[in-house]
Write a structure and sequence with these properties.
The complex is a heterodimer of chains A (734) and B (318).
Chain A lengths: L9 H24 L5 H16 L4 H20 L9 H17 L8 H26 L3 H17 L5 H27 L5 H24 L10 H10 L9 E2 L13 E2 L4 E7 L5 E6 L1 E2 L4 E2 L7 E4 L16 E12 L12 E5 L4 E6 L4 E6 L2 E2 L4 E12 H6 L9 H7 L8 H11 L5 H11 L6 E2 L13 H9 L1 E2 L1 H14 L4 E7 L3 E7 L2 E7 L3 E9 L3 E5 L10 E3 L2 H6 L6 H6 L4 H9 L6 H35 L1 H14 L6 H16 L9 H12 L3 H15 L6 H15 L3
Parallel strand pairs in A: 1-2, 13-21, 14-15
Antiparallel strand pairs in A: 3-8, 3-18, 4-16, 5-6, 7-10, 8-13, 9-13, 10-11, 11-12, 16-19, 17-18, 19-20
Helix pairs in contact in A: 1-2, 1-5, 1-6, 1-7, 2-3, 2-5, 3-5, 6-7, 7-8, 12-15, 14-15, 20-21, 20-24, 21-24, 22-23, 23-24
Chain B lengths: L2 H18 L4 H12 L4 E4 L6 H11 L4 E5 L6 H5 E6 L4 E6 L6 E5 L6 H13 L1 E4 L2 E4 L5 E6 L12 H4 L4 E3 L6 H12 L13 H11 L6 H16 L3 E3 L3 H17 L7 H12 L4 E2 L1 H5 L4 H11 L10
Parallel strand pairs in B: 1-8, 1-9, 2-5, 5-8
Antiparallel strand pairs in B: 3-4, 6-7, 10-11
Classes of the chains: A alpha+beta (734), B alpha/beta (318).
């Protein structure tokens, strides 16, 4: 390699300037994140060093200048009095000696600021040398550029430093530097003179490209991060607790619901397996107080109702009277995760667990905790006996008139709404329910409202309400995207807004069907992905009735639509069947809503649901296809020559000779016999022949030369040369 | 004379030269290429490697009239071109032709003479005619100048200016022979100099015919483009102050035609271009002084350019 001489042209100056900008990005956050108060001094040092490098000042002189500058600045920062009064020098020397002593003793934290500044100057000195080396000698800066990006990204993620501007600046500067360096590198390699016209040809597209891409990137809508913010994740991992609070959470059962919203990521860890007679949801707890951001309990003081095995479980569910028909069922649960509470179905009557276990019900949330000698303990296995309700619609329709009989305490507790709740939520609730008079139909109307296509089920693209926003309001009117918490909270709030007592229930769905366990039992597996929330509304004399507003979910609650109800609501005659259909309720529902016309929207929705359901399968098949294609491509040496032989064997047209020859060149290249740019066909043919110890390539090439350089395509030349060609291309088969 | 015949004749000329010049087939080939392409050759090498012998062997092999001009600082243009002398008997000026009025001329140590004398020769090379006392004398064809120049002595020399160098089709070096070859040279030197025994392989008429025939050698557009690409690349090279001129491109094409013909082809292939490009371009390129200080030579530049310019492997589609 030739020695690089000092170049002092504008392009080199630009390179140095851009290098300075990149270095600057490293210094910018210091002011904000460290106790460095005077960045300018260091920036000036960078400018000075790079200028000296640009003008090619001899190392000795430039070292002297830089050293002088450092000492001057240290004096300026840490000493009073004139620089030329030498009185500070002994003190300075003493401090240096002291700090070197500290270094030797590895007492790094106690080094003085002066010494730390000196070390930092030294670091910058090294950095400017490296920058010069990368820019001028290596003509490569990608590593530094990449490190700068990583540095900024890490700071942005883990520190208060906001790097919105920094990342844009760095990308622009970095690409400009890399573009310039590539230009220089290509010129060096090809030995081409640097000319203004040539530079223009390169620089104008480069500048345009950077400007357009940066402009586009700046103007384009910013997608939500695909990966969740890793910080809370890492923190929660460190603390070994569920991700709480707003922001991005991992799906699963968490206790704190006071700030809802934000995307979820899936987690397929198994929570428990259950053998059940019929599908049903699993409750864990309920919440009664909506804050505008999430759910809390009204009674924060812990009040527990203890009960033992075989005793009545003091859970409030439906009231056992004629209005609710019940069927007794049993389910058994095998837990995989250690939670000191049980999951239970609606209407739970008994829990069968080891005899030493006692239970207590958290009055505020109706969470059943398991205790062993007063200490919380998690059960491995337990059996639940419960009564499966079938609600009488007639009775529920009459409930509205009996609303006055409900105790005041219950009404006020379960119709609570925050004062800041935007008025439009109430208005919407009233508007939705205005055509209905009884509570049941009102509830059904609310439930159905969320099946509208403008609402989308999504776990990833979910907003967190801002300081002055309401969680429900934001979902209902602005984002219209969300998961169970959004749907269920919204329905509870709207039910309360029209005067129905409602509460928010947390737990799990029935899970994924695994296998039949014999004697009518079915085994379901419930994972963290099945964590769910839904709605219960209290009907006088009936009790709590679950509703399911979330798109794509079905609670399998049975309603007994008797004739009276049907007559009253003829138009909804089809409804009972619908809710009793255990599988795919959303499909029938949609049909019902938009029956008159087949809409693309609907198709899109169903496609989305379909894709949502089977996305893993999709991903796997796409990956599989991609992998197969990759293997196919990598192993092309095994089949491609056969294809070419087959393709050219049939033809006798002479026009195919040049095509076949060029393909042969390509195949030989793939085989590893690479023809250099300046290598003539003749030389290459000799090389190929010496490799394969044949003469075929030279013979074939001689004929091809005649064609290319003489312009003569002899008749029948392809038929003559086919054999040579075939011999050669067969040799390229891996 | 059919084409097959022509090739055997060319081969015989080369054999003839080889009989005298041992192991210098490449120089012989290039000299013959220049002769066939109606160009001139500049031989640059130290004394005693057989430059003169080469030219004489070539002249003898084609049955041409051989003249030699030894250039010295005091040589005058008229010593080259000839002079009109007053003949008192016939009472008029009579033209006495100089050594330039031959077929094959060896201009030995051309850089030793004054630019004035140099240009007299060079004008003759370029125009195929000399003008003396207002009378233009056409030079007989074929007219072939082989100039030599000694690269190690600079004192008292007048290096040929770049514009003059352009007049030479090819510039080459002889180089020392291999050990075995040099021993063979010694062996032969003990006997009668073989040059004396050399018989012409072709005559001048045939030579002119060959020169005509060579112009018919096909140069495809693909190849022309390749030539232009190479020439262009020498112009944009970072070490080059002045690249190859269009005259250089023409020279390369003509030389390639002759070379292809010599190898029995009626079309030019990229190999011809690659072999001839250094000889055609090296003396037409002026390097930057920085590059010279860095030790870069024009040969290296041309080699790099040839290595970088892609060889055409497909027909140029217009």
């Amino acid at each position: 390699m030739r020695t690089q001489k000092v170049q002092k042209d504008a392009a080199t100056f630009l390179l140095y300037a851009l290098g300075f900008l990149l270095l600057w990005e490293w210094l910018r956050p210091l002011k904000e994140l460290t106790d460095t108060s005077n960045i300018t001094v260091f920036l000036m040092f960078l400018v000075l060093s790079l200028m000296l490098a640009f003008f090619g000042v001899s190392p000795l002189l430039s070292g002297f200048i830089k050293g002088l500058y450092i000492i001057y600045e240290l004096h300026y920062l840490y000493y009073d009095g004139s620089f030329f009064l030498t009185s500070w020098i002994p003190h300075f020397a003493g401090e240096l000696a002291h700090n070197f002593g500290l270094l030797a003793e590895r007492e790094w934290p106690s080094m003085t600021n002066l010494f730390r500044s000196l070390l930092f100057f030294t670091l910058l000195w090294l950095m400017t040398y490296l920058i010069q080396y990368w820019l001028i000698n290596r003509r490569k800066i990608f590593i530094f550029f990449f490190m700068t990006l990583v540095y900024i990204a890490v700071l942005d993620t883990f520190s208060p430093y906001v790097a919105n501007g920094a990342i844009v600046r760095t990308v622009i500067t970095g690409f400009a530097v890399m573009g310039l360096l590539t230009f220089n590198r290509v010129l060096d390699k090809e030995g081409i003179k640097k000319e203004a016209s040539l530079s223009r040809k390169w620089m104008v597209p480069l500048a345009l490209l950077i400007a357009v891409s940066a402009g586009l990137g700046f103007a384009a809508p910013k997608a939500e991060p695909i990966w969740p913010d890793p910080v809370p994740f890492i923190k929660s991992y460190g603390q070994n607790s569920g991700g709480d609070g707003p922001g991005i959470k991992k799906i699963g059962y968490g206790e704190d619901d006071s700030r809802l919203g934000g995307p979820f990521i899936g987690d397929s860890q198994v929570v428990f397996r259950a053998e059940v007679e019929s599908r049903h949801y699993w409750k864990v707890e309920t919440k009664d107080t909506y804050t505008g951001k999430g759910w809390v309990t009204l009674q924060p003081e812990e009040e527990y109702l203890p009960f033992g095995m075989g005793e009545d479980i003091p859970v409030s569910s439906f009231i056992d009277n004629g209005a609710v028909e019940t069927v007794e069922e049993k389910s058994s649960v095998l837990t995989f995760m250690n939670y000191p509470h049980v999951v239970y179905p609606l209407g739970v009557r008994s829990i069968n667990a080891p005899p030493f276990i006692t239970f207590e019900l958290e009055a505020a949330t109706e969470k059943i905790r398991t205790l062993d000698g007063g200490r919380p303990v998690s059960l491995d296995q337990y059996e639940l006996g419960f009564e499966k309700p079938k609600y009488s619609v007639t009775a529920m329709k009459e409930a509205a008139s009996k609303a006055g009989t409900l105790p005041e305490e219950l009404m006020s507790r379960y119709t609570q709404l925050p004062e800041e709740l935007p008025e439009r939520v109430r208005e919407l609730a009233l508007e939705i329910t205005q055509d209905q008079t009884d509570w049941f139909e009102k509830a059904r109307e609310l439930e159905r409202y969320f099946r509208r296509s403008e609402y989308n089920y999504s776990q990833t693209n979910v907003a967190v309400p801002g300081e002055n926003e309401d969680y429900v309001d934001q979902f209902l009117f602005d984002t219209k995207q969300g998961y169970c918490d959004n749907f269920s909270s919204s329905m509870v709030v709207m039910a309360r807004a029209v005067g129905m007592p409602a509460r928010w229930v947390k737990g799990y769905t029935e899970g994924d069907f695994k296998q039949s366990a014999g004697s009518g039992l079915r085994l379901f597996e419930v994972t963290n992905n099945n964590a769910h929330s839904w709605v219960e509304i209290y009907f006088p004399e009936i009790g709590w009735v679950p509703f399911e507003p979330t798109q794509g979910f079905n609670n399998n609650v049975q309603f007994n639509f008797d004739t009276a109800a049907q007559n009253a609501n003829r138009q909804e005659a089809e409804e009972p069947k619908e809710s009793e259909t255990p599988v795919k309720p959303e499909k029938t529902e949609e049909k019902d809503l938009e029956k008159p016309s087949f809409s693309i929207q609907e198709l899109w929705e169903s496609m989305k649901t379909f894709a949502g359901k089977y996305w893993i399968a999709f991903m796997i098949s796409i990956l599989a296809v991609a992998a197969m294609a990759a293997v196919f491509y990598l192993k092309r040496g095994r089949w491609l020559p056969y294809y070419f032989i087959w393709r050219f064997k049939q033809t006798k047209e002479d026009e195919h000779f040049p095509k076949a020859y060029l393909i042969l060149l390509k195949e030989l290249d793939r085989y590893g016999l690479i023809r250099k740019n300046g290598q003539t066909l003749r030389e290459y043919a000799k090389y190929v022949d010496s490799f394969f110890t044949t003469k075929d390539m030279s013979r074939l090439t001689a004929r091809y030369e005649q064609l290319v350089y003489r312009g003569i395509l002899k008749e029948g030349s392809w038929s003559e040369n086919k054999e040579l060609w075939e011999n050669l291309i067969k040799k390229t088969i891996a | 004379m059919n084409r097959e015949n022509m090739h055997t004749k060319i081969e015989r000329v080369l054999e003839n030269i080889e009989r005298v010049m041992i192991g210098k087939r490449d120089v012989a080939e290039l000299s013959l290429v220049a002769l066939l392409a109606e160009g001139h050759v500049l031989l640059e090498d130290v004394p005693g490697v057989g430059k003169t012998m080469m030219v004489r062997a070539l002249a003898k092999s084609v049955g041409a009239q051989f003249k030699r001009i030894q250039f010295t600082p005091d040589l005058l243009p008229s010593d080259v071109t000839g002079v009109s002398i007053y003949n008192p008997k016939e009472m008029e000026f009579q033209f006495r032709p100089g050594p330039i009025m031959g077929n094959i001329i060896l201009a030995d140590e051309i850089n030793r003479t004054s630019p004035k004398t140099q240009s007299a020769l060079l004008e003759g090379m370029e125009e195929s005619s000399v003008t003396i006392d207002g009378v233009t004398h056409r030079l007989e064809k074929p007219f072939f100048v082989m100039a030599t120049q000694n690269p190690i002595e600079y004192e008292g020399t007048y290096p040929l200016p770049e514009a003059q160098l352009d007049r030479f089709l090819l510039k080459m070096k002889m180089g020392y022979p291999e050990v075995a070859e040099e021993m063979e040279v010694l062996n032969r030197a003990q006997r009668i100099p073989p040059i004396e025994a050399l018989e012409p392989a072709i005559d001048l008429v045939e030579l002119r015919e060959l020169q005509q025939e060579i112009k018919e050698v096909h140069v495809d557009d693909t190849i022309k483009r390749y030539i232009v690409d190479i020439a262009n690349r020498t112009r944009t090279h970072s070490s080059v102050y002045l690249g190859a001129s269009p005259r250089g491109s023409i020279a390369l094409m003509k030389a390639a035609q002759a070379y292809a013909f010599m190898y029995g082809r009626d079309y030019v292939i990229p190999d011809d271009i690659q072999i001839l490009a250094p000889a055609v371009f090296v003396h037409r390129i002026i390097l930057k002084s920085e590059a010279k200080f860095e030790g870069i030579t024009a040969e290296e530049v041309v080699e790099r350019v040839i290595a970088r310019v892609p060889v055409p492997v497909q027909r140029l589609v217009k």
